[in-house]
């Protein structure tokens, strides 16, 4: 077994500079309840990008060092430094999830049971050749599942499943999703069809409408279309959706969704109520595609809620047992409902190539990069 | 007993005009479970104003008719007409709450038990000389309580009590309140002192700081002061408040509060987390002092929630039994914790005087008008 392996590190220094490089670190020995995973594949998720690059201007990034061990540097606008005070000077690993083969295991029965198996891991620090983790952060994949197939078995599948779980826990019956043509959105579309939950997909381009309809979506509305508001309200009236998950965050879209939900609810009311309907409308912001401020018009009565939504916090709410049930479903449907598709496969060193960075940092809808740390 | 009585009516017509007048209506006979109340006093709450005047320009209101039966008219900006479509042409009564003597009662034991008693009523339509209501909307006042003393026994007392009840139900330990020098705010300040719940009062003027401190408030911060943000964060760190009730709604204040809560929570964290703290921060908007859009910077992690908060919806959540317990407490403390103070007492006809309208429509902090329908 190798004594050292490469691990991606990112650091923001007080000279307003971001550095990202590959550090050669010792391969750890697993403790009793731990396993050592040879990382075969790790996706770059939107949720990884802020840790990787912070508020740095990646369009002007530059590299030094060798081709095998490049060092990527970029500048941070001075006014953005306040937002990263908490991480200043720290050499942070990154990579929310990935999959690989267990090549060493601690003494516990749970750890030994995974030896030689391919596992998905949601442990952070996955942009690395080796990762030692507690068995509880592993999902044992079925025998015919490869590391590449299982690499994205946590973030998107569990997010989609937990959105539906939120719907059930909070008593809604239909769902709205924005940026719905994303990898996650396509997955949610498959999941809702399989579980027969009405889903209103909001996209921003005509070709995304086509894409989702071709994948069986019944309700797709384009927020850039002139008739967006009436189309949205019609879809909400048809489905009765009172819960939305918003990946965008900034701007007026969240407000438009709540307004349309209220209009759909008010059209069922028999008499005027100046406080609006009593139908509770809920919107969760789970992404930051638009980091600008959220603008709420508040013309949707008083029965509404909005909030941040983060997978780990929600998983804590539903508890270990329910979380394990959801993970087991992901393993069973990883090649169907929860399959991910990748635009490009790259090595750890290629992750630091400025041109490649610009491409995966665009967060273009439907694009997704897979890192192969052993390549 | 009189056969007719005066009742205030408000109507918005499709010629962009608001009319408010006193209608002479028959005094109703109470049904089995109803009582007839001779309304002695009814406060003008901020929550009454939107129904009374809608979006009309009251600074240019005019009257016609006689001094005893005036008709108040005002114009509505054309672009605001869309927001009042649901009430067009309807002659709506108004007045959320009030108190008076029960002068007739239905046959049921519950109704008969109230005959001759002074009751508080939360039934709408209280800007009237007589009001027939179901016994369930009545709060029997103690014998030594007058109609004037009991007129505001629902909206402010129950709102203050239910804010504290929200804190308990949702597991918070300290509270933030904006527009804290209002009648409601002063009441909440008394209630929190009595129940030893730390309260952070946010006001907008130095004299309001003094007012609340003179009433025993420990934490008062002025949102117009240069050092507002550090002062707020210090108060939040000291109290651990993670729940806020905001009467203002529009602008950036809600965002500032959530940001300061997150900063207080983050200062307790041992390591950097790019998703922010896991401390849940909650803000409820219960008023519309600023009807403009709410601007959220979302620099407070993902563990946050915001929502509308409306007393009747909350009362439904906690149920009849708990609601009755809270109402009983109001009756017992109506002259102390839940006492209201009025700037001026006016008749029904004076409510329609343009100069008086401008005064009570200002929603000036701490000012409150009491209508005496029998005057």
UniProtKB/TrEMBL annotation, chains A, B:
<dbReference type="GO" id="GO:0016651">
    <property type="term" value="F:oxidoreductase activity, acting on NAD(P)H"/>
</dbReference>
<protein>
    <submittedName>
        <fullName>NADH oxidase</fullName>
    </submittedName>
</protein>
<dbReference type="GO" id="GO:0070402">
    <property type="term" value="F:NADPH binding"/>
</dbReference>
<dbReference type="InterPro" id="IPR020843">
    <property type="entry name" value="ER"/>
</dbReference>
<dbReference type="InterPro" id="IPR011032">
    <property type="entry name" value="GroES-like_sf"/>
</dbReference>
<dbReference type="InterPro" id="IPR036291">
    <property type="entry name" value="NAD(P)-bd_dom_sf"/>
</dbReference>
<feature type="domain" description="Enoyl reductase (ER)">
    <location>
        <begin position="13"/>
        <end position="372"/>
    </location>
</feature>
<keyword id="KW-0521">NADP</keyword>
<keyword id="KW-0560">Oxidoreductase</keyword>
């Amino acid at each position: 077994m190798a004594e050292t392996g490469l691990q991606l590190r990112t650091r923001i220094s007080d000279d307003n500079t971001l550095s990202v490089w590959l550090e050669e670190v010792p391969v750890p020995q697993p403790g009793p309840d731990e396993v050592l995973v040879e990382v075969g594949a790790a996706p770059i998720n939107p949720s990884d990008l802020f840790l990787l690059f912070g508020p740095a201007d990646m369009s002007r990034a530059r590299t030094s060092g060798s081709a095998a061990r490049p060092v990527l540097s970029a500048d941070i606008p001075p006014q953005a430094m306040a937002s990263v005070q908490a991480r200043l000077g720290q050499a942070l690993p990154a990579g929310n999830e990935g999959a690989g083969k267990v090549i060493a295991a601690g003494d516990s029965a749970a750890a030994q049971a995974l030896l030689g198996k391919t596992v998905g891991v949601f442990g952070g620090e996955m942009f690395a050749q080796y990762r030692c983790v507690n068995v509880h952060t592993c999902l044992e994949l079925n025998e015919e599942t490869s590391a590449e197939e299982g690499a994205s078995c946590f973030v998107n599948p569990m997010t989609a499943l937990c959105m539906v779980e939120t719907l059930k826990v909070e008593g809604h019956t239909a769902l709205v999703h924005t940026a719905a043509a994303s990898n996650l959105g396509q997955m949610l579309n498959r999941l809702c069809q399989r579980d027969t939950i009405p889903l209103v997909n909001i996209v921003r381009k005509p070709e995304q409408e086509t894409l989702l309809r071709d994948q069986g979506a019944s309700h797709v509305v384009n927020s850039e279309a002139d008739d967006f508001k009436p189309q949205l309200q019609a879809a909400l009236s048809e489905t009765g959706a009172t819960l939305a998950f918003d990946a965008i965050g900034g701007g007026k879209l969240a407000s438009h969704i709540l307004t349309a939900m209220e209009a759909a609810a008010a059209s069922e009311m028999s008499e005027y109520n100046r406080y609006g309907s009593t139908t509770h409308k809920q919107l969760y912001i789970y992404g930051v595609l638009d980091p600008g401020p959220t603008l709420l018009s508040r013309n949707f009565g008083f029965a509404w809620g909005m909030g941040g939504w983060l997978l780990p916090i929600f998983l804590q709410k539903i508890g270990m047992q329910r979380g394990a049930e959801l993970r087991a479903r992901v393993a069973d449907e990883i090649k169907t409902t929860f399959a991910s598709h990748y635009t490009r496969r790259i090595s750890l060193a290629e992750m630091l190539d400025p041109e490649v960075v610009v491409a995966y940092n665009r967060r273009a809808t439907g694009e997704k990069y897979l890192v192969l740390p052993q390549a």
